[in-house]
Amino acid sequence: MTRAYDEAYRRSLEDPEGFWGDLAADIDWSKPWDRVLDDDNPPFYRWFDGAETNTCFNAVDRHVDAGRGDQRALIYDSPITGVIKTWTFAELKDAVARMAGVLKANGVEKGDRVLIYMPAVPQAVIAMLACARLGAIHSVVFGGFAASEVAKRLDDATPKLVLTATCGIEPGRIVAYMPILNEAFELATHQPEKVIVLQREQQAEELKAGRDLDWDDELAKAEPADCVTVKATDPLYILYTSGTTGKPKGVVRDNGGHMVAMKWSMKAVYDLDPGDVWWAASDIGWVVGHSYIVYAPLLHGCATILFEGKPVGTPDAGVFWRVISQHGVKALFTAPTAFRAIKRDDPDGTFVGQYDLSKFVTLFLAGERADPDTIQWAERILDRPVIDHWWQTETGWAMAANCLGLGRFPVKYGSPTKPVPGYAIDILDDGGHKAKTGEIGAICVKLPLPPSGLPTLWNNDQGLIDAYMADFPGYYKTGDAGMIDEDGYIYIMSRTDDLINVAGHRLSTGGMEEVLSKHQDVAECAVVGVADKLKGHVPVGFMVLKAGVNRPDAEIVKEVVQMVRDEIGPVASFKSATVVDRLPKTRSGKILRKTMRQIADGEDVPVPPTIDDPAILGEITEALKPLGYAKD
Ligand code: COA
Ligand code: AMP
What we know:
This protein has two domains: 3-309 and 389-482, ANL, N-terminal domain (Rossmann fold), CATH 3.40.50.12780; 503-627, GMP Synthetase, Chain A, domain 3 (2-Layer Sandwich), CATH 3.30.300.30. 31% of the residues lie in helices and 26% in strands. The longest helix is centred in the first third of the chain and has 17 residues, at 89-105. The termini are far apart. The protein binds coenzyme A (COA) and adenosine monophosphate. Adenosine monophosphate (AMP) is lined by residues 241, 287, 366-370, 388-393, 416, 478-480, 492, 495, 501, 506.
């Protein structure tokens, strides 16, 4: 069967400038581009070179000008606080313009960075759009990170201003943000001039005189600010993501290419139309939140839901169905782990029957491997298509998907289907040669990446080359390993580096090892991601202690668990560690982390030919059993 997909895919690779140039007509530009693609300086490609525009205008004002001002734009649904509030496009425009006025009055100009450390509250979405309105570059930091992670971002992005709230709300606990932020200021070299603080009723805070300003007071006196024209190639935001060390990478997103890809993806990938209600159940601190809570749905003229809650426990495993039914959601996008949590609490899906899901058409999953069990369970209880798709912070949108707006392909469980138009994907072996059909290798994308792909890392052009382009010249290395089958379906099998996915959150085990090795008693350590029924993976630490240490192991384990929580944050879910006499290594001294992971997962582990002493495998097995890992 011929699908629109085939033609779109072919043209996107054979004539990328024609393909993306045509799609760019869906965006308002104040000045058209000189060239669709500037490819003068590979691997630094620029889309829509010479064009001028404004992302906030296209996401908000444009719909008001087109007569859609009364349509719902933003729906805040917070089961954790019991609040539901809706903004039309006209109301959103007023709120964003006023917030932009606050930023402007506090000295924020085009190109300045603004760090946003906030929970899933509507003011955070409004603040992101307000930055875009002024051409300021936002950098949102996820609330589950600790002070030192915030400090790293302060020092790298050097923001002029910080926007925060007094607290986030997790089930059973209030997460006070100000102590974390204050500690981050102490740790950071760069000191932003001001902090604008949203006082939430759940947690009042004393403001620091001379530094902190009250959000509502500032809003009350602000004049609305207009959109500032920016270049298509100017940065819209920086989003830090885990790399292989403790130093996060500042992924830069531009304005023009990003908008073109976001807008098109809403129809091509998700099959949504303007006016539809869309819900990405993620957090604004992650790329899914940036792309699919904020920018893409608004650019497409959809209503977007901002959900402050959890898939279970707020108040129960029926909350997703309640939200879908109450707001008339057509498509939901979340991480498989959310569905594993719902399945755990409501295995028969009994809550589904209590709600009217007649408007609900499709469930999309991404962020981590979607295990066939979870997909099939979701299909069964929902009786609707469940679409797995694969993407990364670096791309900002899907690299592989069953593009519903371009003609659906049959689902193959375990595969996110085919490359999205714009992505020329090859599987490469260690020597950089194309792997045969069905052979596993490094998943790479031929350069240039399509629009929205990262143009660079913040202040670190060389970092872009080193991290992504150096190993396979002419390609972007995704860091994932996988294969392509005889029908062109892609399978994502594992990472080729030490990143792990914990409850859909991307984390660096290398970063955790850096924390463990700071403990006074630890001589050597390794952290590996082991399989977890709920979260996909969780980190487990192995420590060899310094000679002469004779404190109880349990005490040291407790301390390192606390250190990871304090230095990286609760989101790391680092709860298990064990003390061993030695780590398995190759004869040349490389730690065999993959072997440790396989033992923990209860796999039959072949003795690696390069191992220095095979007896160590038994020792690791025994150390893992008390933690509930490894086979008997
Ligand atoms: N601010 C502060 N702390 C946070 C946080 C935030 N925004 N988000 C999570 N945390 C904390 C949690 O409270 C938890 O702390 P604890 O160790 O004190 O219990 C810790 O970080 C780990 O959180 P999480 O991994 O989310 O586990 P959980 O057991 O609290 O919840 C799920 C499990 C499956 C319900 C939850 O992970 C979830 O809703 N996942 C949806 C997937 C998702 O949104 N992915 C984003 C990418 S698409
Ligand atoms: P992040 O940058 O946080 O979005 O994480 C990106 C990583 O998550 C990818 O490189 C993959 O390792 C993993 N990932 C995302 N989506 C999928 C998917 N559908 N299937 C398998 N892995 C995925």
